[in-house]
Automatic annotation (TrEMBL), chains A, B:
GO molecular function: DNA binding
Keywords, alphabetical: DNA-binding, Transcription, Transcription regulation
Pfam family, one: LacI
SMART domains listed in its UniProt record: HTH_LACI
Taxonomic path: Bacteria, Bacillati, Actinomycetota, Actinomycetes, Pseudonocardiales
Domain of life (superkingdom): Bacteria
Ranges for domain HTH lacI-type: 14-66
Identification of the protein by name: LacI family DNA-binding transcriptional regulator
Protein species of origin: Pseudonocardia zijingensis
Cited InterPro entries: HTH_LacI (IPR000843), Lambda_DNA-bd_dom_sf (IPR010982), Peripla_BP/Lac1_sug-bd_dom (IPR001761), Peripla_BP_I (IPR028082)
DNA sequence: CTGAAAGCGCTAACAT
DNA sequence: ATGTTAGCGCTTTCAG
């Protein structure tokens, strides 16, 4: 008399199947194409039904079944740092083209945060994780991680044994120091990052090599550490100035720091570039907006992002991924370092 | 004689169950806590087994079963635009605290891209989608979308009938124009965005209201549209200057545009703020780095992001979400508008 | 050319 | 207090 089950309306592929009068298997086959042959008639019926029902496969179910998602995690120290914008954009653009999705994670370069994100991403079965911005000295929190099928790519130097996309960080700084020397600098204030950052390690090596090569004195008081912020650049420079440390050039390891340095120099009554020439690194967009406009080492961050995605696609298709993709860099000479401009 | 099945080693919860000598149900119960009572003994055994196997539940399976993920999609016009950094950071920080994950999508304000992302996110069963940066005039590509269980929040004005987090956009511009008038401006060049952007519509209303209120002439040649970029601000201002349109103040609807305007004004041989006072809106970090430092209307973008997450959490727990969360704004007066500074 | 059945890894009813 | 069963929505053998 009474229906044993109220028979809830079918959802998903099953609904399409009912409407087209076929099995879910057939629906799946038609919608994915590239399978065994299907008669034109049923194919059309399924397509029509799917369209009417606005059917779209549940990615979760597909991923669970297939064993892999089309999501990738992007770990950056801080998305508010301009260094990562073009990179994130490039990765995201390339990801979208390939039908992938990007999960954004800010780590503040804290191992604990990084670790917890990696776990979260692994739980979500992401297909790959991109570490951007360079790793840190002790990456023990990652080396013992059970990566299983997760592909890993680093943008910048990293302790992890994975393909990387990068620039010759020591080289960028050498190039910049060469330029400072050409401009007549003999005592170059070096505004570095944190000692534990690998990127800092490399850039510092570049500074040391160039300074030695030019036969300049390697005064330890000329090397200062900071957190790559405008404030850090400003206070480090101010400190050097207050301590009476002489310098006629500033080599900042990133642009924010360089901008802070220019502020401190100016505030101290000295002129850029007449009294002190300043060069930064990364060439973020702000650098051409401040005044004097900042000279900086430039390299294609947007392409870093795209390249990272390409590497992921290589790995996903089982190819042997290019272990290191190194990009070219050049100096964007602007007012802050050019006494003749 | 031969084993019927090679008996692949169990994975996931099943492996933990075997190791602890219990059923997967028990494993599930123990690991989630908050269920029926479990004897202390088995609980410890399960916990130990899970730990040894470094077991973590597969989020995909959990989501498929429970019918909802803990992911949210963030749609921004362009993550390279500083306006969205603090916002993205705020959302992401709050999301992480709540165990959620943020999928980043750049739309370039293109309906097609927006639509395709929304579909992709819906396929992935995200729990919510955040539209940031204000919608566009014809959001037909979204109004007919089958949202089903997906929560929607807008940061800024939007045509969609959803909770929103925002500032009084007309009010921000009115405040800024009031300030320009106080500084003695009587002919204020208005650098607007695209007519189809809702945020532009509102800001334009603010400009008109303030201009009328002060009894100033509403010269159509003083209103220019652009895409919110430095270049647009620069070329629009240059055009006005070249056409001989008189103005002694600039009201730019965003900071990039204002910076471009300052460049054009300076390049034309006129001084900021002596000859022309300039005010922007949004108060992005660069504004205090350019020179002259830019006066701008400030409001807490970081909090916008956090608030959006709060609204999502409200909706997810079935509460009635606050329909509109409006934040305060104030003018950050700097050199570009202060003839007395 | 098409369908039935098994199962991805998990949780929720329903037993016991 | 614990286990058995069913099923989330899909793809993939395996059979016709």
């Amino acid at each position: 008399m009474t229906d044993p089950a109220p028979e809830a309306p079918a959802r998903g592929a099953k609904a399409v199947a009912q409407r087209a009068g076929v099995s879910v298997t057939t629906v799946s086959r038609v919608l994915r194409g590239q399978d065994v042959a299907i008669s034109e008639a049923t194919k059309q019926r399924v397509l029509a039904a799917a369209k009417e029902l606005r059917y779209r496969p549940n990615s979760l179910a597909v991923a669970l079944r297939k064993g892999h998602t089309r999501a990738i995690g992007l770990l950056v120290p801080d998305i508010a740092d301009a260094y990562f914008h073009q990179l994130a954009r490039g990765l995201e653009d390339a990801a979208q083209e390939a039908g992938y999705t990007v999960v954004l994670c800010n780590t503040d370069r804290q191992p604990a945060k990084e670790r917890s994100y990696v776990e979260l991403l692994a739980d979500q079965q992401v297909e790959a994780i991109v570490f951007a911005g360079g790793g840190i000295d002790e990456d023990a929190h990652l080396t013992d991680f059970p990566w299983h099928g997760i592909h890993v790519v680093a943008i910048g130097p990293h302790r992890l044994d994975c393909p990387s996309v990068r620039v010759d960080d020591a080289g960028t700084i050498e190039l910049a120091v060469d330029h400072l020397v050409e401009q007549g600098s003999t005592r170059i204030l070096c505004l570095a990052g944190r000692p534990s950052w690998l990127i800092n390690e490399e850039r510092l090596r570049g500074y040391r090599q160039a300074v030695e090569r030019h036969g300049l004195e390697l005064d330890p008081r000329l090397v200062r550490t900071g957190d790559f912020s405008v404030e850090a650049g400003c206070s480090s420079t101010r400190a050097a100035l207050d301590e009476g440390v002489e310098f006629d050039g500033v080599m900042a390891f990133n642009d924010y720091t360089a901008i802070g340095a220019m502020q401190a120099v100016t505030e101290h009554g000295r002129r850029v570039p007449e009294d002190v020439v300043v060069v930064g690194c990364d060439d973020i967009p702000v650098s051409s907006l401040v005044s004097p406009r900042l000279t900086s080492v430039s390299f294609p961050q947007y392409e870093f992002g795209r390249a990272a995605m390409e590497v992921i696609l290589e790995m996903a298709t089982g190819k042997v991924a290019t272990p290191v993709r190194q990009f070219a860099y050049h100096l964007e000479v602007r007012e802050s370092s050019s006494r003749r401009l």
